[in-house]
Amino acid sequence: MLIELANAVGGYLHEVFVINLDWWVLLGFVAQAFFTARFAVQWLASERAGKSVIPLAFWWLSIGGGLLLFVYALYRKDPVFIAGQGFGVFVYARNLYFVMRDHRNSATAV
Fold it and tell me: What pTM was computed for the model?
């Protein structure tokens, strides 16, 4: 029974990660790497500051990863993924706008 389960899991993983591997899957992995990198960037910036901060790179990585994942979701025709990433990219872009607006306003106030 345990060997059958191991074979079934192994067969599943082989299908998902080897047989189904194509350029779109590679794009998805690159997009996910951008998206994951944003957390590392945010964590390192917070550790350096000794408090929770969100650096500008976080928003750029969010937009880059989100857009690539959105394109990937469109190709896969996944409505849940399309809706989630489409809305997310809008939120990331809006936050980046606020950060850049505030930076511009503080630069002109000095």
Answer: 0.79
